[in-house]
Amino acid sequence: TKTHLLMLFIVVVAMIIPWLCGFVLSGRVLLGHASEEYTVGFLVADDNPQLNVLQVLVPYAITKFNNNSVDVKLRLKTHTYDQSSLFGLVDAACSLLSSNPVVIISPDGSGCIASQADIFAPLHIPLLSIVATDPHIKKAHRQNLLLLSPGDEYQSRAILDLLSFYDWQEMAFVASDSTYGINGVTYFQTLLTNNRNSHFVVKSIAFFNAVTHFNHLDPEQMRTTLINTKRSLARVIILNCEGQYGRMVLQQAYKMGLMGPGYVWIVTEGITANPKLLAFDGFYPSYYEGLLGIGPSIDSKTLEYKAFVDRFVSSHAGIDNSDISPTIVKSYDAVQLAGRALNLNIVPPAVNCSTNMSWLDGESYLDAIKSTKDKAGASGRISFTSDGQVKVADYKIVNFVNPGFFCGCRELVEHTKSKAEYVCGQARCRPSAVQFLGRLPITL
After folding, report:
1. For residue 20, is pLDDT > 60?
2. If exposure means fewest CB atoms within 10 Å of the residue's CB, which of 259, 291, 346, 391 is most exposed?
3. How many CA atoms lie within 13 A of 243 on its CB side?
4. In Å, what is the CA distance from 418 to each residue of 96, 151, 157, 238, 371?
């Protein structure tokens, strides 16, 4: 009868509808697993000396992560800004927030990172800093900030160990008047207040103006800066500045006779991390030969490092091994760290610079990144302290041999940040124009 048919139809529909709903919901969830995307923000100054390589590297790192991830996918949003203008930085940061990023990665210096952290911290958006080394940058209100480079105090310790090894007791400092330059000098002087180091004497400290764009540095101003250095009669000179200023300082020092026999120059990681910045149209002056430097130590013999370099260089025309600086390697690792800490329970943020709301999942995501324990990356094993600073501070002593810095006569490694030790490695020191004043280094 019609009544029976109607009842049978209702029963069938009642059975089919839940099955269909389950299928649809299951399909939606499965679809979400396959296409769930989170935005990674990349914020970089438009005059960053490695910008061209970084603009190739970061999309490559995103692609590599996506190729290896089943559930979580990343998409990239990049903004550049004029670091000479605070308003420009704020505008770029706020524009980037409109893309709802779960994390911001930045390869800029400490001053810029401090401003960025102040913008993103109230919103609980994690900020991964690649190169910031200011030990004062970690404030109570900047809990969102994670540092992938050790602080200036550890580099100062490495410099002191180098001076102690060669028994060079008198030195002069030439430094930029930026946060990086000032902190390096300050922490070194702090180390000297220790009674065990009282026999060391800083005979001169000269700062030069780093606010001006490095292409517009006044040679006369640089000469005036170096006159006090020359008058101090110090024979060991430590240059602590950003890489883009290094060649201008050394060029003027050469003209003033400060790089000939009888002088030792020690440059810090601002220069050794990217030696290509010392070149003049690809040419390296002969007076660079013999420069000593303290550089970040990344083991180029690990499988992770070799795999990254080989694949990245081979897949991008115009990029070669000389472009692979510690900043590049750490930027690659930062993307992988950010991606691996994500899971599908995390709801992307919907915040902006004009809201008082913060990202609800921001703290848990930050904790997931910080909980990384000795994860092997291209730059080495990565772990963070509870306050978001990288645990391992490795440095190497390098010697300039055209066309770059190479592992020096001895390698300095700080595994615990509390005790430094020298580890003998393959000797490649080549004293040339620079004459060593203490014990001669081991040479082949």
Report:
1. no
2. 391
3. 26
4. 39, 13, 10, 23, 22
**Which amino acid, residue 219?**
P
End-to-end CA distance of the chain: 104
pLDDT digits (tens, 9 = 90+) for 267-317: 998 888 888 888 888 788 888 877 888 877 788 889 999 999 999 999 999
Question: Is the distance from CB of 279 to CB of 244 less than 8 angstroms?
Answer: no
Alpha helices in 326-361 (DSSP H): 326-340
Angle at CA of residue 43, ends 45 and 298, nearest 5°: 85
Structural tokens at position 308: 């990254």
Q: What is the pLDDT of residue 215?
A: 58
**Cβ neighbours of 403 (radius 10 Å):** 14
Q: H or E stretch including 407?
A: strand 404-407
Dihedral sign for Cα atoms in the order 40, 46, 47, 53: positive
107: cis peptide before it, omega within 30°?
Answer: no
Instruction: Please provide residue 412's backbone torsions phi and psi, each rounded to the nearest 5 degrees.
Output: -105, 125
Q: What gap in Å lies between CA 118 and CA 142, rounded to an integer?
A: 7
Indicate if the pLDDT at residue 83 is higher than 90: no
Contacts with 85 (C-beta within 8 Å, 6 or more apart), sequence order: none
β-bridge partners, 295: 396
Contact 60, 52 (CB under 8 A): no
Q: Where are the beta strands (DSSP E) in 297-360?
A: none
CA distance 228 to 247: 19
| Kind of pairing between the strands at 404-407 and 393-401 | antiparallel
Structural contact between residues 211 and 180, judged by C-beta atoms closer than 8 angstroms: no
In tens, the pLDDT along 236-277 reads: 999 999 888 999 999 999 999 999 878 889 999 888 888 888
- Burial bucket for residue 164 (CB in 10 Å: 0-12, 13-18, 19+): middle
Q: Residue 18: is its pLDDT beyond 70? A: no
